[in-house]
Amino acid sequence: MKRKRASLPSPFSSSTCQQKYDVFLSFRGEDTRNTFMDHLYDALQRTGIITFRDDEGLERGESIASELFKAIEESQFAIIILSKNYVSSKWCLDELAKIIKCRKEMGLTVFPIFYNVDPSDVRKQTGTFEQAFIDHQKCFEDNIKRVETWRATLREVANISGWHLQNR
């Protein structure tokens, strides 16, 4: 059954880019999958907003990274749920870098949600964010440029107006 797309304002012209999803959700599963993210996903679906989340939108047998990046490119909006363990995942950070690249190059609209984290910890990369980057620097000492890209991307996202949710 083909679902009707929600009527959302689009930053894209119909002639330049074909959008498959209204929203791409970026999140750290262990922090939010069975709590906030599931509620958000269900609410978006109920209102007819076509939403990509990694556990339902990935084609079996396809490369995870390429499928995720393709889904980001085919979305009008990205909602990034920044939680305390978000930056401990290189997958989340690579996804975040792709989202910001699409924001700059394709006009993807980005909405950050600071879920049980202080936006200043994200911006300044303190607290759990600091430790995660210390660990990444050890793991990627031959590719520090990748870690620096992640840091810059995270600072950029933290400077986008979003929502700060504590214990909700």
From TrEMBL:
<keyword id="KW-0378">Hydrolase</keyword>
<dbReference type="Pfam" id="PF01582">
    <property type="entry name" value="TIR"/>
</dbReference>
<dbReference type="InterPro" id="IPR000157">
    <property type="entry name" value="TIR_dom"/>
</dbReference>
<dbReference type="GO" id="GO:0061809">
    <property type="term" value="F:NAD+ nucleosidase activity, cyclic ADP-ribose generating"/>
</dbReference>
<protein>
    <recommendedName>
        <fullName>ADP-ribosyl cyclase/cyclic ADP-ribose hydrolase</fullName>
        <ecNumber>3.2.2.6</ecNumber>
    </recommendedName>
</protein>
<feature type="domain" description="TIR">
    <location>
        <begin position="19"/>
        <end position="168"/>
    </location>
</feature>
<keyword id="KW-0520">NAD</keyword>
<dbReference type="InterPro" id="IPR035897">
    <property type="entry name" value="Toll_tir_struct_dom_sf"/>
</dbReference>
<dbReference type="GO" id="GO:0007165">
    <property type="term" value="P:signal transduction"/>
</dbReference>
